[in-house]
Specification:
heterodimer; A: seven-stranded mixed sheet; 13 helices; 17 strands; 35% helix; B: alpha+beta; Dihydrolipoamide Transferase; Chloramphenicol Acetyltransferase; four-stranded antiparallel sheet; 30% helix; lipoyl (chain B); transit peptide (chain B); acetylation (chain B); mitochondrion (chain B)
């Protein structure tokens, strides 16, 4: 049973979230189920942040259900260059987001359900939450073989991953969120979660690739709405609350004061790319120039998503050494970003001697270096 | 005996008065960060219990406390340190984030239990940290540290709250043990005090303010709950003017405290490259030439073209017309420039009139036409200005505002492109530009640039030439203005301003003016373009 929020309810929700004793349509004293109307990853992640920072959850639990438009979400301490194919993502307009919880990289689209279980820090129990999801799925389709693993994954038929988990613990509030593959684009998922970048050496948390399957493939009659409703029903039963889902708008400042600032912060380059732990790229290229093969060695140190140090080894005299060192010097401090590098390289070319051969060599070198980004 | 008692009471009173004076200064100073302590009256140090209220940066009178990594839950005993938010020597407040640790897909933010200065970090990045072992050493004041120790309970089931909570009327009241003690001693209910700290935490000042309101005086924080009579008005307040019978309240001016800090960052990446290019650009002796263009006829033409363009899936703005006119303006009229290739006007005519539609024939953008007449504007000089190269291709750059800043992709070979070709190429460049996918090929090789700053705003501008080019044009916004026609009647005209800049070493004012006039005439009367084509 889904209740559409009227403006009046919006304010009730606001006060309900802040002051536990305030009157609320659903029995907010022990539990609350909310569902986002937005499919924007940044807005939805901001809701998690908001609840984490603003709610006191001594004895209460909140379940938050959300789905996003095509996005790749990396864990707090991960390296996007190591985890996904940024080139394909740019071409297909697939967003990239970094969440605040740990764990690995996931692909989201409207066929992938996200569930966030908010509790107080002492009530933080991931296995219990996963068992709840398993019970819900079993109640829906008893023939399904779904079980939780020690790594907090959910496996279908013993070997297909249908859910991955991550968690965030703050001072008083903790949340555990997981995905649930209902009807996602598996083909796109596998192509986007494969990094083409070679030579990366990093201490960032790596993802564990796994075989995945959609619930839809087991039973085509299942839709995301049916699954979400089943989970909400099981949650309501568990926490002895009414089975009613409150729809929320993550863009509404009156219900979530300060949320738009959180949304903006999650969209900044400094958060998404800049929070990547220090890493290095060391690789060798073969460039083709006028029927000859040239070997280029590149060594780049990256910190906070920016090039801290850069060394490009070219065949002798192929490019004037002054130009090569000019490129290295300008790349230092620059973002590890192909559009930034293209803009930088073409701007530098303006003050170089106007020579067609020199220009084409320079462009070739820059395009080659850009493939690393 | 009496004298002793009198003396004692005297000193007590004296002590208390001094106490009060220092409390007042203390409480006002407490709101400012400890670094301003250097201006504070040093006599406060005489009173040991005052030390609780402040710290100085020079005198360290606190002790080093080892802040242990508290329990994470789920029986986890070790975590990996992923990010430090503080370094040794930083000052932290209670609840500030210290570091981020990760354990088995759970990311945990560790916050400080104390106010103090970080003296030692026990782990480096990516090292394993153990629950129950020291994480950081914080130098903090003795009293607070001692009182806070009570909170450390090692049972896994209980979450480690740094403060004790009071549940009153279903509303949590946050306060440190010291504050709670003070409230209890003064018989104050915490629920009645307004907290001004983080999360509505009640601070010592809040208790003092509450007490001040109750008694109309400022009380010392000492355990003695005696009330001191209200102090006399400070002498700094000037006396009220005598000629008025009524008292005028004179506000005491507070010094305006602005806590903002300057932020310095290095110039890097694309901006660094722009510094180099623009420095070189301003070595070129620029001259400017401005004019206004009546686009009324062109506006009408574009309206007629819209459905045709839509059918083809191409968005046609004014830019394709401006670009093409610039290119066409280069026509071998004068014999000043001898030896370069003549673009064959006849050969590209079919390309210029793809559909045979009259309105499209009229819609030839003047820029390319202009460059055909005045090829010097599509040229390039070498560093020492010793030779000029007349470029055969009209690669007209279009300034684009993106995340990086101002970048200039160019449309290649405009001299052989139709208006639709230019329009679809512009669409492609705009799409790539907004998604950050422009490559070096699109961004290099430009010979002439147009900047449509008018889409953002402005009328006249002073554009800077982008080397190695020799000319640039900035287009202002289209405004509806009253103008006189040939019959002396006022009509509504769509006016746009153009500001050209050119390299005065090789281009003179007359050339620029003639180019601009030709460009202007093509746009004001699209039919005139037809006349000049063979």
């Amino acid at each position: 049973m889904v209740i559409l929020l009227s403006l009046k309810n919006c304010f009730q929700l606001h006060y309900g979230l802040k002051i536990p004793a305030a009157g609320f349509r659903c029995s907010a004293n022990t539990g609350l189920i909310i569902q986002s109307v937005s499919s924007d990853i940044y807005q939805n992640l901001a809701v998690e942040d908001w609840v984490h920072d603003n709610m006191t959850l001594e004895d209460r639990h909140v379940l938050f259900m959300w789905r996003n438009s095509p996005t790749v979400v990396i864990g707090r301490h991960q390296n996007p260059w190591q985890e996904c194919n940024l080139k394909i993502m740019r071409e297909k307009n697939i967003k990239l987001a970094r969440r605040r919880s740990g764990g690995g990289t996931v692909y989201h689209d409207l066929g992938n359900i996200n569930l966030t279980f908010f509790t107080s820090k002492k009530k933080y129990e991931r296995m219990e939450n996963l068992k709840l999801v398993v019970r819900a799925l079993k109640a829906l389709r008893p023939q399904f073989d779904v079980r939780a693993t020690e790594r907090y994954d959910l496996l279908l038929n013993g070997n297909f991953k249908i859910s991955g988990t991550a968690a965030k613990l703050g001072r008083t509030v903790a949340y555990h969120h997981c995905t649930l593959l209902c009807n996602a684009d598996r083909f796109l998922l596998s192509s986007v979660l494969k990094s083409p970048y070679k030579g990366i050496k990093s201490n960032a948390t790596p993802s564990m690739p796994a075989l995945v399957k959609n619930l839809f493939e087991e039973d085509p009659s299942l839709t995301c709405e049916i699954v979400m409703d089943a989970i909400a029903a099981e949650y309501a039963r568990c926490h002895k609350i009414d089975h009613c889902i409150t729809l929320i708008n993550p863009g509404d400042e009156t219900v979530f004061p300060g949320i738009n600032m959180k949304t903006k912060e999650l969209q900044t380059w400094d958060w998404i790319y800049g929070k990547t732990p220090k890493f290095s790229i060391r690789t060798c290229f073969n460039m083709v120039y006028k029927q000859s093969l040239l070997e280029v060695k590149v060594d780049i140190q990256v910190k906070h998503g920016r090039i801290e140090a850069c060394n490009i080894d070219l065949p002798e005299q192929w490019l004037p050494p002054a130009m090569c060192s000019e490129l290295e010097k300008n790349l230092t401090g620059s973002k590890l970003c192909p559009s930034e590098t293209a803009a930088l390289a073409s701007t530098l070319l303006r003050v170089c001697p106007q020579n067609y051969e020199l220009h084409s060599k320079w462009s070739l070198l820059c395009e080659t270096v850009m493939t690393l980004m | 005996m009496a004298t002793v008692r009198a003396l004692r009471s005297c000193s007590r009173t004296a002590g208390r008065l001094i106490c009060v004076h220092h409390i007042r200064s203390c409480t006002s100073v407490r709101f400012i960060k400890s670094k301003y302590m250097s201006i504070f009256d040093k006599s406060a140090f005489k009173f040991s219990h005052q030390h609780r209220l402040f710290r100085t940066s020079t005198i360290s009178n606190g002790q080093i406390v080892q802040f242990k990594l508290s329990d994470i839950g789920e029986g986890i005993t070790e975590v990996t340190v992923k990010e430090w938010y503080v370094k040794e020597g930083d000052s932290v407040s209670q609840f500030d984030s210290i570091c981020e640790v990760q354990s088995d897909k759970a990311s945990v933010t560790i916050t400080s239990r104390y106010d103090g200065i970080i003296r030692k970090l026990h782990y480096n990045l990516d090292e394993i940290a153990y629950v129950g072992k020291p994480l950081v050493d914080i130098e903090t004041d003795v009293l607070k540290a001692v009182s806070s120790e009570e909170d450390v309970v090692e049972t896994p089931a209980v979450s480690h709250e740094e403060q004790t909570h009071q549940e009153i009327k279903g509303h949590k009241t946050l306060a440190t043990p010291a504050v709670r003690r003070l409230a209890m001693e003064n018989n104050i209910k915490l629920s009645e005090v307004v907290g001004t700290g983080k999360d509505n935490r009640i601070l010592k000042e809040d208790i003092l303010n509450y007490l001040a309101k109750q008694t109309g005086a400022i009380l010392p924080p000492s355990p003695k709950p005696e009330i001191i009579p209200p102090l006399p008005k400070p002498e700094t307040v000037p006396p009220a003017p005598k000629d008025r019978g009524t008292k005028i309240a004179i506000p005491i001016s507070k010094p305006i405290v602005f806590a903002g800090k300057d932020k310095t960052e290095a110039v890097t990446g694309f901006h660094k490259a722009m510094v180099k290019t623009m420095t070189a650009a301003l070595q070129i002796p620029h001259f400017g030439y401005c004019d206004e263009i009546d686009l009324t006829q062109l506006v009408q033409l574009r309206e007629e073209l819209k459905p045709v363009a839509q059918a083809r899936g191409v968005k046609v703005s004014f830019m394709p017309f401006f670009i093409k006119s610039s290119s066409l303006s280069t026509y071998l009229g004068t014999c000043m420039y001898g030896h370069y290739m003549l673009p064959d006007v006849l050969s590209f005519c079919p390309l210029l009139f793809p559909l045979g539609d009259k309105s499209i024939k009229r819609a030839l953008s003047a820029a390319s036409l202009g460059l055909l007449h005045y090829p010097i504007l599509n040229a390039s000089v070498d560093e020492n200005c010793q030779s000029i190269t007349y470029k055969a291709s009209h690669n007209i750059g279009v300034a684009m505002d993106t995340e990086q800043g101002l970048i200039v992709p160019n449309v290649k070979n405009v001299q052989v492109c139709s208006v639709f070709d230019i329009a679809s190429e512009l669409n492609r460049l705009q799409t790539l530009g907004s998604s950050g996918q422009l490559g070096t090929n699109d961004l290099t090789g430009g010979t002439f640039t147009l900047s449509n700053i008018g889409t953002i705003g402005g009328t006249y501008a002073k554009p800077v030439i982008l080397p190695p080019e020799v000319a640039i044009g900035a287009l202002g916004k289209i405004q509806v203005l009253p103008r006189f026609n040939g019959k002396g009647e006022v009509f509504k005209a769509q006016i746009m301003n153009v500001s050209w800049s050119a390299d005065h070493r090789i281009i003179d004012g007359a050339t620029m003016a003639r180019f601009s006039n030709l460009w202007k005439s093509y746009l004001e009367n699209p039919a005139s373009m037809l006349v000049d084509l063979k």
